[in-house]
Amino acid sequence: MTTQTAAPADAVPQPLVVRTVALDDLGRTHDADAGTPDPADLLDLLPSDAPLAWVRRGDGIVAWGETLRVEVTGADRFARAEEAWRSVLAHAVVRDEVHVPGTGPVAFASFAFDDDSPAGGVVVVPRVVVGRRGGRTWLTTLTAGPRLGAAPTLADVVGPHVPPVAPGDVEYRDGAVPADDWRDVVAAGVAAIRAGEVEKVVLARDVRARTQHPVDVRWALQRLARRYPSCWTFSVDGLLGATPELLVRSEKGLVTSRVLAGTIRRTGDDAADMARAAILAHSSKDLEEHEYAVSSVARALEPFCSSTNVPDVPFVLHLPNVLHLASDVTGVLTAPVGTTTHPSSLALAAALHPTAAVCGTPTTAARALIAQVEGMDRGRYAGPVGWMGADGDGEWGIALRSAQVDAQDPREVRLFAGCGIVAASDPAAELAESEAKLVPMRDALGRDA
């Protein structure tokens, strides 16, 4: 394994040998009648040490081991990460027998929300990747060596299954800003909006958790994937969660971004929740917040696309804990002026970050206000997280509904939640919304019923 803060060619394994072979279907289904893949059969393959994952509705990729690790910091962290990845690929020998998105060389990565955060970013090129897409399943191995070896099998790379360990009792305490004081943070945001400093700002808070036993990330991932199947369940370098928000997917010249902004808590009663969905869909405060977020994504994508499609009205996304206003913005990529290829998924993620859904509008003023009043370093919360392939295509979510396991003490965990603030926001209501958004990670660290 190599760790570096830049990407000099002499630090890259030479050559990187990549072999992708088809597997028989892993065999389990979550709903035998519907034929829905069970995400656990991918997640069950993971070892407890530094698992990597990007899974939704049973499809996705999981990985483990580190062939190469690149750490980056600063405003140019995305460009430096892509440079490192290109250096890896320049010394790669690849045999891909499956040829679908996620096969061949793959890197996982996550990045800090703020340019100045010491969390920076990390790119991990794994040793083993197992994936599934549309009923096709594959295995990729990545090794440093002079030549291709025999085709790998799952038995070659998966050790004896060790079930994930529950974290035991969990004690929660205030994070950087106590819950009661966070209402004052929101009030400061509202005051700035009414003073004309910003139109919208997203303010976040953290909660600290102390677990009885070291956190086994697989325990949390399996619970998240089963309870939130429509979200993207992810794990990269101790950052884990189930995000409902897709920052960008780039695939064969097509780009998609799922934008969420505007939230209401569910009651648990179906009839009441349907009524709440109708209220959300017609809420001027939430529609205003959503419009800012969608517009920011559309503007960011426009220079890279020959055409885009922005829905006229959002739909209501139903999750177990909350309801969101959601819009899927799509586009057809084109090569920017003076170039011959369209941008990579990581370059698109860099151009989109931070969206109004996690920062505010205007972006520069909102970022300055966050730094002034929020009272914490977000780390890699609300930053891009996901994967990219050799052709630059990939998927990047926004690290929401997430937590960071402390690298030095795996019994310490930071949970995060944020809320979009507009002129009509009420501090007490925003605090309640943040509590609703903490539910997925609280549940993920809980015991089985």
Write the layout of secondary structure elements.
Blueprint: E1 3-4, E2 16-23, E3 29-31, E4 36-37, H1 40-43, E5 52-56, E6 59-64, E7 68-72, H2 77-90, E8 92-96, E9 106-111, E10 121-125, E11 128-133, E12 136-144, H3 154-157, E13 170-174, H4 179-194, E14 200-211, H5 217-227, E15 232-236, E16 239-243, E17 246-251, E18 254-265, H6 270-281, H7 284-301, E19 305-309, E20 315-318, E21 322-333, H8 345-352, E22 360-361, H9 363-373, E23 384-389, E24 394-398, E25 402-405, E26 412-421, H10 427-444
Parallel strand pairs: 1-7, 2-8
Antiparallel strand pairs: 2-12, 3-4, 5-6, 5-15, 6-11, 7-10, 9-10, 9-23, 11-12, 13-14, 14-22, 14-26, 15-16, 16-25, 17-18, 17-24, 18-21, 19-21, 20-21, 23-24, 25-26
Helix pairs in contact: 4-10, 5-10
Structural overview:
With 449 residues, this protein is α+β, with helices and mostly antiparallel strands. Helices cover 26% and strands 35% of the residues. A hairpin with a 2-residue loop joins β5 and β6 (59-64). The longest helix has 18 residues, at 284-301. The chain starts with a strand and ends in a 5-residue tail after the last helix. The model is unreliable at 6-10 and 28-34 (pLDDT under 50). Keywords: Isomerase.
Keywords:
449 residues, alpha+beta, Anthranilate synthase, 13-stranded mixed beta sheet, 10 helices, globular, isochorismate synthase activity, isochorismate synthase, ADC_synthase, EC 5.4.4.2, isomerase
